[in-house]
Structures are given as C-alpha cells and as structure tokens.
Design brief:
Strand content: 35-45%
Mean pLDDT: 85
Radius of gyration: 15 Å
Order of helices and strands: EEEEEEEEEEEHEH
Number of domains: 1
Helix content: 10-25%
Oligomer: single chain
C-alpha cells in the first residue's frame, strides 16, 4: 500500500471524515444490487465507513452517500446539459456544493473537483487516470501535492462474472475521505459511460 505525506492543512468539507493517518479504503460495488450502482466502503482492515445507495430508476444516476449511522451526507448526480461529463454533489437540502468535471484528453482521463472547504477556502483537485481508468492520482491543482490515489482491481472474479468494480483508495492525512470517495464514484460513473 502507498503511504501519502500529510496535507499541510485540513482539506475537505466533512471534518469527522478527515483522515488522521494515510488511510486506505476499499470501495466495492455491490453484486446484484436492486437499487443500481451501490457500494460498500470499508477501511482496508474491514471497518465499515460509508455506504452508497444507487437509484436504479434515476435518469441522473443518483447515488446517496451515508455514514454508517445511516446519516445522509450528500447525493451524487450527473449533470445532463454539459459539454464535458459533469457530476455534482448536493446536500440533503438539495444545495449543490461540489462538482467533478472531466476534460477531454487523449490517452488518459482528467477531471477537476471543485468545492469550498470547511475553512471557507475555494479548493480545486485534479484527478488524472490512465486510459482504461484502472488507476488515478488526485492532487491539489495549485500545489500539485498528492492527496489520494485510486487503484481498480483489474480482472478479478467480481468484475469478470458480474461486472462489479473494486477500488483501493489511499488518502493522505488531513484530507476528507468523503470528498475522495465522491471523486472515485464519479470516475466509476465516467468509466461506465464508455
């Protein structure tokens, strides 16, 4: 597993979910989910941390992200009238607070995540993945400091039989795990569009 250096200041929105150490999460798409793209998200040692419930009947690919207490943190949706693939997150009241917009690129996938952090600072994260979206690195767009890495387990039995993805996501200390999970889910959605 990769160890990432701590980000110098808290980076994110959901303070209870800021990584205290370099944290690796395993994001598994649920097999035979009746609700569409749903995910179980656990630490690498098996402790559940988030659950994502997809909606099979949603045109915008709605995914509700909750903590393990069942508290609704935010919903990820696809924006339909956009030049580039764009996903956004809205709070439980329907207010948009985060977006991920892909950029056209030959040979790799690129996207920017934009949000206002808990400190009030406008943040921009840059995600660059390989052509097959098997891996991606997320950096602070201004400083280029790595904040997370995403690795998709490629050609495992879940993927071959049921088309279900599994990702390992390593997050730097002081970085919001919920924001990085949202970016990983957007990467998965973009991959599913291909």
């Amino acid at each position: 597993m990769v160890e990432l250096a701590p980000y110098p200041t808290p980076l994110g929105i959901f303070a209870p979910f800021f990584a205290r150490k370099s944290e690796t999460l395993v994001i598994k798409e649920k097999v035979l989910s009746l609700s569409g793209d749903s995910f179980d998200i656990k630490t690498v040692d098996g402790r559940p941390i988030f659950q994502v419930k997809g909606s099979a009947w949603s045109l915008s690919g709605r995914k509700m992200v909750c903590d393990m207490g069942g508290n609704h943190l935010f919903t990820i949706r696809k924006k339909h009238l956009a030049i580039h693939s764009t996903y956004y997150a809205e709070d439980p009241n329907g207010n948009q607070f985060f977006d991920v917009t892909s950029k056209f690129s030959i040979g790799s996938s690129k996207a920017y995540g934009n949000f206002v952090s808990a400190t009030g600072k406008q943040e921009r994260l840059f995600m660059k993945g390989d052509f097959f979206d098997r891996s991606a690195d997320i950096t602070d767009a201004a400083t280029k400091q790595p904040v997370a890495t995403i690795r998709r387990q490629f050609l495992n039995a879940r993927e071959l039989i049921a088309g279900q993805q599994t990702y390992e996501v390593t997050i730097a200390p002081n970085v919001d795990m919920a924001v990085i999970v949202a970016m990983c889910i957007c990467l998965d959605e973009k991959r599913n569009e291909k």
